[in-house]
Amino acid sequence: MTTTSPQATDLTDPVHTQLQYQLAVFARRMEQVRGTDGVAALVRAAYLLLERLERLGPANVKALADALGVESSTVTRQVAPLVAAGLVGRVQDPADRRAVRLALTPLGAGRLAEVRAGRTELTRRLVAGWPPEEQRAFCALLARFNHSVEEYAAGRQGAGGA
Questions:
Q1: What pTM does this model have?
Q2: Among residues 84, 112, 141, 148, which is most buried (max CB within 10 A)?
Q3: Rounded distance, CA 45 to CA 127, Å?
Q4: 49 CB burial (10 A radius; 0-12, 13-18, 19+)
């Protein structure tokens, strides 16, 4: 199986065309291997929500939505099955007793740790043959790319989604 298309190997092809193709292949391949390592997968949205709750601590829907760069209704919809599964709980907001916050439960923290460990091991296997400096460079560049995507999305939201 190759990760290049005939068009992507053409030296006259702009790097951006090759990059967008490689990103599409990356997304497909990661979906293919997710959960094949013996650790039952969490869907990406659930994983990111649990990660954010671990980092933020208890948070209201709006704060989570802002942190994830999505609409509040999206968080509400995505968190419902996590609450039903006991991975996320609702706790009273100490600043406003009428309001509730979402919090990672001990079950959710354990599940997150299990999935994170599986994903980390998979990542370790995928780059095992790479020199350490290339692994660090890839991580830094991917983080930079994700930051650019985040800034772009924020700019589009600020411009009314145009």
A1: 0.75
A2: 112
A3: 24
A4: buried
